[in-house]
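STRUCTURE:
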């Protein structure tokens, strides 16, 4: 017998009660807020760098492990954190930047909410090491969930603050899983440091992976924005930039000032790079970026993707910085007017620059007398060059023979241990004296050797080249200047002193022969009369300047040499681009090394040398003598003004006469004398000397040594005349340490 189950009648639907509103626990609230402020590892790095900037740091170093998830370490040399402030350092809404809401209207600091460090402690383990000026030791303390885990512990510390953020998002599993691509996050951090580096050019920045020997971003303080862009984004970007400026002082419309660089018609990239700072704050502005892309799409062919750097300055009260959790965006007063003005200036600049295009030169075949720059692929293969390697099989290098430097890195090793000093007014110097790091080979030297005597001189250089010194020069690493004449260079495991005057003199001589009759020219702004130059050179050599007979003899020598050089003007102009006009004025000089200009204080000596020391009768001796005179003139000599660092500072002090009545000074213990002499520094002359010496050192590092690696064929005499002196060997040092 089958029994059928009957369905139960449906029960009437029970109405649901509204969900109950609960007050969240403080830790949950803080963790949610932390997820908004610290969205990715790069967000934490940005907040820490801005804190370092607010601390008036001059050097900021960043180390990252696993894209920032395992470790973010930011060190600076700022003013540090007071011991009394450490207990509340990582509490929410604790800050030294403002005290009232009205302060937001005029805030100039990068941070102001007091949320960044607190947010990090809720999603990571944070350790702070800091020391303030005048303290004998620093303090280290760890934080979690906004509070200290222990009392601050005394420790050794260097000036400033170091913050370590470990195990980021350890308690946010979903967030951590979405950030497993460490390479992508690290590239974002490198891009962030690059943007800060080209804006804050008075600071040095570095960014490296934890444990890596070489930094992926490394800049030193400079006074040139273009040089900063060149060191970070490369020569190809810097050479295709146009300077733009815009401003408006009309209170009825907008008040702002903009300075920047934009790419020209020759620049080509796959994506837009826009670096925007508003009141020194790194931000994004979608409307401005779209306006720039519209201008480039309408002005340049194929809608080229531009490179744009802009720094906009407005009154603080015209900027609302408190509109985004990560301060990535700001709101501007009269934003549409400002963008419209900038757009018009950029469009006008691009249209004017579009009249000319620059194209890359075709690569020429390498020659025996002048090698060319290797391609990036070849350079990368040669980076670990070892002349003793005999086969493809890699062997472990003993520690005493390990080379830890890279000869392709232009940064001097000593600069990492010296306080960087901006080169004052370097941007305002004449373009002829501006030095750049790019060295370009112009022509195949074999094609320039039109005369047999020039070919013989070049063959002598090639045949007598010292192979051992050539290997040292090709693969050495510039360390820094040891004194006014000698530079420290490293080759493999040996350290050498190199005489930069001798090296540059020989380099310039060889380059004159290679560029024979194919020079570009430097036009003097004011033609220099030869008689005055020769007379000036004779006076510098005269041991008895007050003798009237010497004056008459000097005038005669000046007249004879001037007539001689006027007779040889055609030869000098055609072969060496040394142009002397009919009136005996020097008007043009040759470009021997690209982007390098000689010290014009040595021009009188050069003109006198042409008249007295050149054998004008024999062709080969004549051309060799002129080339040697040019080489000596263009060599990187120390400036005539003494080096202001060290004992040379005494030269710039002058005596100032003080009377007893000046400033109420009591000279009663001065033997009854009413007067006293006091030293006073001639700041104008001192500034000129500092600029000359700084520019020379920069030229040696970024122009001379790259050129030496490319072009110089060292003669055997350099091995014995003190041009190279070995001062240390790593293998010998290890033997000494082993005995100890």
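SEQUENCE:
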């Amino acid at each position: 017998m089958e029994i059928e189950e009957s369905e139960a009648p449906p029960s009437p639907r029970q109405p649901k009660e509204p969900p109950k509103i609960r007050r969240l626990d403080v830790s949950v609230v803080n963790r949610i807020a932390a997820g908004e402020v610290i969205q990715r590892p790069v967000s934490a790095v940005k907040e820490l760098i801005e804190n370092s900037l607010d601390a008036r740091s001059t050097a900021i170093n960043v180390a990252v492990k696993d894209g920032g998830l395992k470790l973010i370490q930011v060190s600076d040399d700022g003013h540090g954190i007071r011991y009394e402030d450490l207990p509340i350092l990582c509490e929410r809404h604790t800050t030294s930047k403002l005290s009232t809401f009205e302060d937001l209207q005029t805030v100039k600091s990068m941070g102001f909410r007091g949320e960044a460090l607190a947010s990090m402690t809720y999603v990571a383990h944070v350790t702070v090491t800091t020391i303030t000026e005048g303290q004998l030791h620093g303090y280290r303390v760890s934080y979690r969930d906004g509070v200290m885990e222990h009392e601050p512990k005394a420790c050794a510390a260097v000036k400033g603050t170091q913050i370590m953020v470990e195990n980021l998002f350890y308690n946010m599993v979903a967030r951590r899983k979405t950030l497993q691509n460490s390479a992508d996050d690290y590239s974002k951090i490198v891009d962030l440091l690059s943007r800060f580096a080209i804006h804050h050019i008075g600071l040095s920045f570095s960014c490296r992976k934890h444990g890596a020997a070489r930094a992926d971003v490394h800049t030193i303080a400079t006074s040139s924005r273009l040089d900063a862009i060149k060191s970070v984004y490369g020569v190809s970007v810097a050479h295709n930039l146009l300077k733009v400026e815009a401003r408006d002082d009309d209170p009825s419309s907008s008040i702002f000032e903009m300075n920047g660089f934009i790419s020209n018609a020759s620049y080509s990239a796959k994506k837009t790079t826009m670096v925007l700072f508003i009141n020194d704050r790194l931000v994004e502005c979608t409307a401005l970026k779209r306006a720039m892309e519209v201008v480039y799409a309408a002005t340049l062919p194929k809608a080229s993707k531009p490179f744009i750097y802009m720094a906009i300055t407005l009154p603080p009260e015209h900027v609302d910085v408190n509109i985004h959790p990560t301060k990535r965006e700001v709101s501007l007063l009269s934003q549409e007017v400002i963008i419209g003005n900038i757009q018009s200036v950029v469009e006008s600049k691009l249209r004017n620059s579009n009249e000319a295009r620059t194209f890359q030169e075709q690569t020429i075949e390498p020659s025996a007398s002048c090698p060319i720059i290797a391609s990036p692929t070849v350079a990368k293969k040669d980076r670990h060059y070892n002349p003793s390697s005999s086969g493809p099989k890699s062997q472990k290098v003993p520690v005493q023979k390990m080379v830890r430097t890279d000869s392709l890195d232009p940064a001097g090793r000593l600069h990492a241990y010296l306080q960087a000093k901006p080169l004052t007014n370097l941007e305002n110097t004449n373009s002829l004296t501006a030095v750049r790091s790019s060295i370009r080979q112009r022509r195949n030297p074999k094609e320039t050797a039109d005369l047999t005597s020039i070919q013989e001189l070049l063959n002598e250089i090639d045949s007598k080249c010292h192979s051992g010194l050539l290997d040292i020069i090709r693969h050495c690493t510039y360390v820094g200047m040891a004194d006014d004449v000698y530079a420290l260079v490293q080759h493999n495991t040996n350290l050498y002193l190199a005489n930069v005057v001798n090296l540059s003199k020989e380099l310039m001589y060889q380059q004159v022969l290679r560029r024979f009759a194919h020079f570009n020219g430097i036009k003097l702004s004011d033609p220099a009369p030869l008689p005055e130059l020769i007379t000036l050179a004779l006076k510098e050599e005269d041991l008895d300047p007050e003798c009237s007979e010497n004056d008459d003899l000097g005038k005669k020598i000046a007249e004879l040499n001037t007539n001689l050089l006027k007779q040889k003007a055609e030869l000098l102009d055609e072969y060496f681009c040394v142009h002397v006009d009919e009136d005996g004025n020097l008007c043009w000089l040759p470009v021997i090394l690209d982007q390098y200009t000689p010290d014009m204080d040595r021009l009188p000596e050069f003109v006198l040398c042409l008249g007295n020391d050149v054998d004008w009768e024999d062709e080969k001796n004549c051309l060799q003598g002129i080339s040697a005179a040019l080489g000596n003139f263009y060599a990187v000599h120390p400036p005539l003004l003494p080096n202001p660092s060290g004992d040379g500072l005494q030269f710039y002090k002058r005596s100032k006469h003080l009377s007893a009545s000046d400033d109420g000074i009591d000279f009663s213990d001065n033997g009854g004398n009413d007067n006293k002499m006091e030293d006073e520094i001639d700041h104008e002359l001192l500034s000129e000397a500092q600029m000359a010496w700084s520019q020379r050192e920069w030229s040696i590092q970024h122009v001379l040594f790259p050129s030496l690696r490319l072009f110089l064929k060292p003669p055997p005499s350099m091995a014995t005349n003190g041009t190279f002196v070995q001062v240390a060997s790593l293998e010998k040092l290890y033997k000494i340490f082993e005995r100890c």
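REMARK: DSSP finds 21 helices and 25 strands in the chain.
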